[in-house]
Design a protein that fits this description.
This protein is of the alpha/beta class. The chain folds into two domains: 23-69 and 167-345, 3-Layer(aba) Sandwich (QueA-like), CATH 3.40.1780; 73-150, Thrombin, subunit H. Helices cover 21% and strands 27% of the residues. It contains eight helices and 17 strands. Helix 7 packs across helix 8.
Length: 350
Amino acid sequence: MLKFSVMQLSDFSYDLPERLIAQYPPERRGESRLLFLDGASGALRDQRFAELPALLSEGDLLVFNDTQVIPARLLGVKDSGGKVEVLIERILDQHRALAHVRASKPPRSGRRLVLEQSVEVEVGERVADLFELRFLDPRPLLQLLEAVGRMPLPPYIRRETTPIDRERYQTVYASRPGAVAAPTAGLHFNGPLLEQLQAQGVELGYVTLHVGAGTFQPVRVENIAEHRMHAEYVEVPEQVCAQVRETQRLGGRVVAVGTTTVRALETAAAGGAIAPYQGETEIFIFPGYRFRAVDALITNFHLPETTLLMLVCAFAGRDRVLAAYRHAVKEGYRFFSYGDAMLVTGAGAG
């Protein structure tokens, strides 16, 4: 009788010096380093992100996540006087949202919070780890957040937000407001690079996945198959489905920019062939998963023992990915959201 090994959380651990966690973006967008990992052979090449066009070919398709990060973090006090921090997870309508609320004691339904610039909020029902909040300000919620909110930097960036984060913790092609974390692989692209790629015959396509705060939540089970992903909203339009089908027909590569784009495309291809999709996704991609829509991946370096690292390991093999991470540590690459990037081809791709 065959026995199948169960992957454990500790299988996705690695040592990272804190000095390599990028606290600020590079001076100019696109100046990052790029580590190329050939998933078929495990070969590594140290390059610059600006050299990406030389690694792509006419007929390849780059797919981006066009979600836009909203200034979703607000500080304030409860009506009882205790300090409170609010992180919007999802906007429900013009004045209501689901949010994470951090306080010494959770607020009770019916109580009020006073947030940035005296904005009052009424606390509604608690739904799992989230609270329904009703903003009493007359402005539409997106407009209000743009006026008073703070950019929700990841917890490993240990500083307060600055004006530069409004621009740099956002992709240049962001157009669909709704994320509380950036699809960070896309932060490396600038306008001239996108124009150069198009000029050499690389197609561009766009999906939407509104990244939630759950992307930073640790996996709390040792047997990773028992982990359950948080739900995120995704849209994969027919236009990008047609681009994927045509790219595959002509022998080009579908190159996903970021793990969120992978999850969006693979959600849309869950039935075997890619098809338009709109709704929630809880897809969890870890080693053993068979990819249907993606041939290569541009991604940043991810935290140990996270679902993001597991996805990359599923794509190119755990041993090869962790070897690449050890190389990146040795060579002083910058890690996480404002850090450097990888281009990874699949274990069966060239």
